[in-house]
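Protein modeling request. Please complete all fields; requests missing the sequence field cannot be processed.
Requester role: graduate student
Desired output: 3D structure, token encoding
Chains: 1
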Amino acid sequence: MKRSSTLIVALFLATSLFSQDEKIEKKSYLTARVNGVAPLLDGLISEAAWNQVEWGGDFVQFQPNEGEAPSQPTNFKILYDDKNLYVAIRAFDSEPEKIVKRMSRRDGFAGDWVEINIDSYFDKRTAFSFTASVSGVKSDEYISNNGDNWDSSWDPIWYLKTNIDKEGWTAEMRIPLSQLRFADKPVHTWGIQFTRRYFRNEERSNWQYIPQKAPGWVHLFGELNGIEGIKPQKQIEIQPYIVGKTEKFEKEDGNPYATGKSSNVSVGVDGKIGITSDITLDFTINPDFGQVEADPSQVNLSAFQVFFREQRPFFIEGKNILNFPITQSVAGGSFNRDNLFYSRRIGRNPQYYPDLADGEYADQPDNTRILGAFKLTGKNKNGFSWGVLESITEKGEAEIDFLGARRKEVVEPFTNYFVGRVQQDINEGNTIIGGMFTATNRSIDHDQLNFLHKEAYSGGIDFKHQWKERKYSLELNGIYSQVGGSQEAILGTQTASERYFQRPDASHLSVDSTRTSLTGTGGTLKFAKNSGKLIFQTGATYRSPGLELNDLGFLISSDQVNQWSWAQYRILKPFSIFRSLRVNGNQYLHWDFGGTNTYRAINFNVHANFKNNWGFGSGSTLQGESISNANLRGGPALTSPGGINNWYWIGSDNRKKVRFSINQWNYWGNERSERSGGYFVNFTYRPVDAINISLSPTFSFNNDKMQYVTSVDYGSEVRYITGKINQNTYSLSLRINYVINPNLTIQYWGQPFISKGEYSDFKRIIDPDGSSFVDRFQQFNSNEISYDSQLEEYLIDENGDNSTDYSFGKPDFNFVQFRSNLVVRWEYIPGSTLFLVWTQGRTNGIATDQERSLQDLTSNLFGVKPHNIFLIKYTYRIRL
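Delivered output (880 residues):
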């Protein structure tokens, strides 16, 4: 800790070298109410109404030559009436024939574009962004946390037309006021910012000058004045849908639920209602997520669960409102995933699978059906914001057939999920205080579900204060959790991979099989300097052993105290061969609640962007000896030698029709304990503006001499078995996007995935904290271990009496999978969409003795009969 304190003091003192504040003149634009006929949306800016206001302009470069005049000038005008905001933008170009009209689907941000950000709350923290590409493609984002979060899942209804002429190109926008949020008052001042991307030079310019090194974005906007007499719009949008779905898959003889095909039709409705000027209600009844792209394939050899991103529209839109990350460390770490709310818990796969007798077959639901859900969100003129989510999932049942006789068994209980989030802005957003509460309540009335928590609650408070023009910030939060249920449920919680209270060497932990509840706490303290050439962040975070969030949140592991520091020296203006340059340093220290130092490491890395728009980065991490409380799955803590990790990436100019990037990494464990690495390569080809093709092959290898295999009883003792794994993983992702017009797109994604693992050199742990790597295990010799090919088991004769003392199954694996989606999306009118979807999946697991080569694996995969899903989804948005 002494070294960490010294580093923190050094970083703080170093900031005095770069502490001078740059004074920025705040711009303002005066708009006017439309007098007479509103502008016709045709992209020409020729209507008489536009003569009511003056052009705004005098843009300044943001990148690359910050503060200088842009290569081409840009002007704009703004008008309004009772229902709409009208924006006209003139992007001058002395060579209009070179304007890049790249096509993409919505939120693609391709080619030349212009953008307006609107802080209509005028809270200097949140804003609405509307982007117009020269090709007519619309992009939109909800900006929060003063520009740290840009949520492109927000899809408002607005209108756009563009046009190219001899002076350059123009864009006309009509933004309904119903899509914005603002207070009910007679006179308004809004924050605004305009940005232009001049594609040929990869140049960005802004109307309101904001330095790249500034500590934030929204609070530095210019001002829009002149809006008077408008009222917040109480929007009502209803979007019913209908989905027809057909599945074709391999028929299984004797299984009445695997007939080879199935079909169904479902209906539902989504809606948005503006209850008051400050409150919006989003709801969904019987939501459908049929068009969602499949999760990427993975093989998880760790003790911890895998995080998958949310892909369902209802939960994606506005996700920042209901977000409570426990730790947001720039230095990175697995704890950055931990959150009080993880929406993938709602509608999850059923957590129980029936035990089937011989001759029985089960029709197990893939997901728990969501009966309905709603979100209530708002923010008032005093800076108080809130969000509430309520969702109900029905009782899930599996139908079981035995020779035609059928019964049902409950596999998931009726469950209620609740999430509430509040935040209060103080002193123009320089100080923010907030809180969150979540609740999961299950109706458990069947014995087989007693392993689940009957109730689970979590809550937290957070605080952020910024000073000296937001250059410095202090953040802290604290969280609390409580779960309750049967003794079986709480025993399972204590012994789960997040905790492992049963570890024999953890004197600060103990298992209590009589408990019916468990509580825990966590929190983070963080200090940062956010602007200037030198920026840094340092902090600490903890999770008490009893913390449990995984009923409605996401928690990797408890029983930890983690400290980190991060610093960056950056040069953001072009010099020499560089367009920009960043040099980073990181430091990490981790402990458990028993006081054991479980991890320590330092890292240095550099990232460069060159004047030819190529990029390069490289870094190394020096890791000290580490101690894992989870590697032996509830056994004693296992010490691993340290090592060194090195990586680099290089990428070509993204503006070119042909471009590539490559990432390569390597890890060398000390004492030859581990060797791993991999490659990720991406090739992208854009033959014409409307078509984009990308191919991404990956390869990784893992050679770990201490990979966990299993644990077995041997008399009154437990043997923890590990082995050397030789794992190779291959994947190849292909994406093809064809944009016929901004509202009609065809997209294809396909990914074959192969992971092959072979184990050897099996060993048992004899001293998990031995002074050297080889002292920690005893490798089985040829007299102690043999393999039974019929049973596919390894037989161990530990005491040498020529009889088997214990055995374990062969852990080798070959996992092959192919997933693909073909989606036709037509937004035939704004907000109303027709989807045509074809999804195909192939999965096969192959015994190593049968198939050994990569060619054998791939040929076997495509010999598997695929599971095909065809669906058509029709939605129609009704605005009242």
